[in-house]
Design a protein that fits this description.
This protein is an alpha/beta fold. The chain is built from four helices and seven strands, in the order αααββββββαβ.
Length: about 210
């Protein structure tokens, strides 16, 4: 059964303008992964477009090297996510992202997958206080300081980065943290791992 979205004319005009203003890489990604139209720049029909903007709380975009790839050209930024602020589940993996500052607007997120990118810093995720899962393995992170206040985290995967410190993990995380995988990280010293385990009560695992 086809779902019809009742949309005011001015809302539809704003949606069409949003699409027209998207970068080419994002038009192709949405057409492939969301609209099933293949790697094209053609605009979607009005109803699917409005459903994306107002009804989507889950988005998965997997780049060309992913096992279940659904995007053929790697994304280099997060500009195309605005204004999908109702997202609770976001997965953008196997891309070429370097930073995530714009994620500060997505305060409803509970599950975030950013593994297999080129991210150098997590600055931007500080306001995501409802986050339960964070997957950032195989990036270029040097620290975890931005997760300091994300004390509802139950799962953290940060192995395969360039971590030299686990600052950001605190005793306040221990109440909810069930899975903390930060090994291997070649620059991470044993004394830092022991510090977190003793002071924060969080077991640092390999995976």
């Amino acid at each position: 059964m086809q779902i019809i979205v009742k949309t005011a004319p001015e809302e539809l005009l704003r949606a069409r303008k949003w699409w027209n203003d998207l970068e080419m890489q994002w038009k192709m990604a949405y057409n492939e992964a969301v609209f099933g139209a293949g790697p094209t720049l053609a605009p979607p029909a009005d109803d699917p477009l409005m459903m994306l903007l107002i009804g989507v709380d889950t988005l998965r975009l997997a780049g060309p090297t992913a096992f279940n790839s659904n995007v053929s050209t790697p994304l280099t930024n997060l500009s195309g996510l605005l204004p999908l602020y109702n997202l609770k589940y976001l997965s953008i993996t196997h891309m070429k992202l370097r930073e995530v500052r714009s994620l500060r607007h997505f305060t409803k997120l509970e599950h975030l997958f950013l593994n297999e990118n080129q991210i150098e810093s997590l600055h931007g995720i500080e306001p995501l206080v409802h986050l339960k899962e964070l997957y950032v393995q195989h990036n270029q992170l040097r620290d975890l300081k931005p997760i300091h206040k994300l004390t509802r985290l139950e799962t953290l995967y940060a192995s395969g980065n360039q971590l030299t410190s686990l600052q950001g993990l605190t005793p306040a995380h221990a109440d909810h943290m069930r899975r903390c995988y930060v090994l291997p990280n070649e620059e991470l010293r044993d004394r830092e791992i022991l510090r977190v385990q003793q002071e924060a009560g969080i077991i640092c695992r390999r995976g």
